[in-house]
């Protein structure tokens, strides 16, 4: 291992976000589809949801999907492409013959920033009109095309303006892993132009990454140090930035 790149950012909710919590988390009368919450009752973004979305968007953009016998799209599991190197492969019977390698990326669960959670709880600032403790509700209606029967449902959403603390750890084993960081940054850009969570085609789940900070930990000293400048957005990350990162990590070998 050469070292690790640690990425911290603010994940800002631009339109209501719904990541379902399942029937076990339904606590509010009248809500048909609640959002996932921590033990403190605060909504959060599971790392698995964010990682899965980044992977699927990258696979679609680069035509890296595999298919099953029914022709349905499945995550790539070739074990050789940059998608598999970054995000890993499943532990299936088919993949037992492949040389095993560690997944490069760790996506932490993202929790609300403390000041945002406090404003939501107290219904202050931008959240003074929030109807629930940390969330809002929105009616959605589907129509049966055969019977014309309406099926109204009440969805719980994390409101616009919520900000989550995002942390991603990317492990670098060789120079190719450094080059693949560009693919990870691509995934962030794809996400900003797509959506996170459910009901995206109905306007839910637009998010943006802001105040992105990069830290490196080399294998030589494993002492955290900030790398480069704080970036306002993923669009500010250019080839010069990648060149400096590559030089630093190679020098640490």
Characterise the protein shown here.
- The protein is an alpha+beta fold.
- It has one domain (3-251).
- 24% of the residues lie in helices and 25% in strands.
- The protein has 6 helices and 11 strands.
- It has helices spanning 47-61, 82-87, 114-122, 175-179, 181-192, 239-251, and strands at residues 3-13, 44-45, 66-67, 73-74, 105-107, 110-112, 136-143, 150-157, 163-172, 207-218, 225-226.
- Strands 1, 2, 5, 6, 9, 10 and 11 form a 7-stranded antiparallel β-sheet that branches.
- A hairpin with a 6-residue loop joins β7 and β8 (150-157).
- α1 (47-61) crosses α5.
- 29% of the residues are buried.
- This is CRISPR system Cms endoribonuclease Csm3.
- InterPro entries: CRISPR-assoc_RAMP_Csm3 (IPR013412), CRISPR_Csm3_endoribonuclease (IPR052216), RAMP_III_fam (IPR005537).
Helix-strand layout with pairing:
Blueprint: E1 3-13, E2 44-45, H1 47-61, E3 66-67, E4 73-74, H2 82-87, E5 105-107, E6 110-112, H3 114-122, E7 136-143, E8 150-157, E9 163-172, H4 175-179, H5 181-192, E10 207-218, E11 225-226, H6 239-251
Antiparallel strand pairs: 1-9, 1-10, 2-6, 3-4, 5-9, 6-9, 7-8, 10-11
Helix pairs in contact: 1-5
Query: Helical amount among residues, as a percent range?
Result: 10-25%
Please outline the major beta sheet.
7 strands, antiparallel
Number of β-strand runs: 11
Unreliable stretches, pLDDT < 50, 5 or more residues?
24-28
Name the overall outline: globular
Task: List SSEs in N-to-C order.
Answer: EEHEEHEEHEEEHHEEH
Determine the number of helices (DSSP H or I, runs of at least 4 residues). Answer: 6
**What is the C-alpha radius of gyration, as a whole number of Å?**
20 Å
What fraction of the residues are assigned to beta strands by DSSP? 15-25%
> How many distinct folded domains?
1
**How many angstroms separate the termini?**
8 Å
Sheet/helix structural class: alpha+beta
Family: Belongs to the CRISPR-associated Csm3 family.
Protein name: CRISPR system Cms endoribonuclease Csm3
GO molecular function, one term: endonuclease activity
Organism: Clostridium thailandense
């Amino acid at each position: 291992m050469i070292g690790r790149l640690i990425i911290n950012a603010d994940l800002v909710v631009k339109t209501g976000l719904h990541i379902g919590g399942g029937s076990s988390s339904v606590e509010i009368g009248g809500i048909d589809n609640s959002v996932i919450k921590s033990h403190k009752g605060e909504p959060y973004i599971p790392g698995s949801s964010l990682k899965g979305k980044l992977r699927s968007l990258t696979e679609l953009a680069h035509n890296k999907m595999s298919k099953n016998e029914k022709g349905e799209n499945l995550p790539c599991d070739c074990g050789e492409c940059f998608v598999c190197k970054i995000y890993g492969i499943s532990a299936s019977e088919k993949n037992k013959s492949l040389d095993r390698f560690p997944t490069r990326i760790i996506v932490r669960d993202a929790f609300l920033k403390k000041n945002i959670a406090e404003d939501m709880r107290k219904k202050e600032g931008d959240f003074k009109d929030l109807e629930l403790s940390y969330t809002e509700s929105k009616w959605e209606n589907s129509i049966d095309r055969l019977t014309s029967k309406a099926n109204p449902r009440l969805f719980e959403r994390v409101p616009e303006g919520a900000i989550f603390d995002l942390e991603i750890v990317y492990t670098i084993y060789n120079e190719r892993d450094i080059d693949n960081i560009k693919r990870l940054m691509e995934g962030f850009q794809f996400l900003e132009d797509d959506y996170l969570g459910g009901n995206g085609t109905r306007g839910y789940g637009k998010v943006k990454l802001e105040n992105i900070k990069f830290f490196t930990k080399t294998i030589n000293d494993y002492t955290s140090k900030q790398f480069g400048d704080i970036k306002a957005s993923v669009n500010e990350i250019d080839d010069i930035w990648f060149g400096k990162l590559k030089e630093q990590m190679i020098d640490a070998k």
